Amino acid sequence: MNTKRIVFSGSGGQGVITAAIILAEAAVIYEGLNAVQTQSYGPEARGGATKADVVISEEPIHYPKVIHPHILVCLTQKAYNNFSGIIHPGGLLLTDSHYVKQERKVDARRVELGMYRAVMDKIGKPIAFNICMLGAMTRLTGLVRAESIMEVLETKIPVDFLEINKRALEIGLQLAETHQ
Amino acid sequence: MRADVRFMQGNEAIVEGALYAGLHFYAGYPITPSTEITEILSERLPGTGGKFIQMEDEIASMCAIIGASLTGFKVMTATSGPGFSLMQEAIGYAVMTEVPSVVVNVQRGGPGTGLPTSVAQGDVMQARWGTHGDHSIIGLTASSVQDAFLMTVEAFNLAETFRTPVILLFDELVGHMREKVVIPQPGEIEVVERLRTSVPQGTNYHPYLVREDGRLPISDFGGVHRYNVTGLVHDMWGFPSSDPKVAYDLIHHLVDKLEHRADTIAHYKEYFTEDAEVLLISYGSSARSALHMVEDRRKRGVKVGLLELQSLWPFPGETVRKKCEGRSHVLVVEMNMGQIYQEVKKAVSKPEKVFLANRFDGVFISPADILRLLNVIQGKGV
Known about the structure:
The complex is a heterodimer. Chain A is of the alpha/beta class. Chain A has helices at 16-31, 77-83, 115-122, 129-141, 146-156, 159-179, and strands spanning 4-11, 34-41, 49-57, 71-74, 91-96, 108-113.
């Protein structure tokens, strides 16, 4: 595979950084690839703008940041307004229809999914929203296998929350499937 | 998949490296972007039989590890800019009393409370000269999570070998970046244990009587020998002295034990240097952007190379001078206003050929930032 650059953006507390870590860890531990994950955030614990970068490659990765992502995920309108312009031409722009209204034309495949709404309807809590997004993203891109994400979830998520997260991943996979 | 392949943050790898090297006592006060080191050790260290104490501040943290080290244990503290400033007086005490200790500074933007969550390399000179008086010190750094592990082990080894505080000068990017790391098996890399005195109980022990090889065997404080430890200039018994000869010899010993071995303490990596016309010199996370740019230019046939410094103090001046010999230009890449740039200019025979590519605005320096400077010095304009 060619080097893939991914940006997850949203607001503190949405699990944007956690999603990036899980994706990168899945690539390294279960897919035998190289991956580097970094983030930028303000001093606030919650509510601040959050951006997480992941680079995945078969080659060694030196520069760890992402300037023009092949895959851009925006989970707030502010993140969309800030970052939609940086997408690599021909890339994938994924947003959540509850939080983001895609207003601009960008040279990318634009996908709006009702991930937040589906998680609230089927699980009733927003806590695994980020995992639902990860499910949708992996199905849309084929970056890593869903099973690899699942393996990481099993090592990272407390047992009491594992079932919710697995269901959220499934919801995301199905949403992307229906969209395609 | 190898069983020992892990995916972790630089700060986690520092913890793994410290435990691999035999860390037994940690005192610290959490501060961004080093907090994970304190947090993880509070969980891990008690389980290994070691002691973790969260102190009231960084002054107390540094003092606590000095005391613990004297009693015979490997010690560490971790902080960032503001905390590192508070530690300076006690770091000088550790220099003067020759107490093995490891101080991690995961650098953030400064001065003052600066940019707490942003990347910077502005404490390079503070690591060297932050404490007062003529002295020398060891400062190591790393550009990857794997090297953060290895350099942490090396910091403990050098602290024990030379009886000195060793500063691990990482930066926010390496501290918080996650990537693949392979944790070596026990015994796979060397761990230097403390050199203890062979002087038996009941015989006079001279704590500051330097051996012919320059080393000072330690007797665990509170053990079988009674002796004095002071931050004042002291004689071989450890008692205060204002004798000019004692002062002269002691200051010389403190400086020479490291400065005379600068090029053996030196750690560095080279990429494409053999036929490089332009040599980049970088360290820490900046070296990643430098290497990205070098590989990219090589694909276009441009003869550039990279010297990545992993030890900054004592500055490996002789190594740098030799590596820069015969290059058309030298480009130092760092995230401050030119702290290592000035050292490189001092070391080389043609300082007018040394240039600086830098950022100090909290933004991680990019390959494009460096390329702009390369184009300028090669006369290609911006």
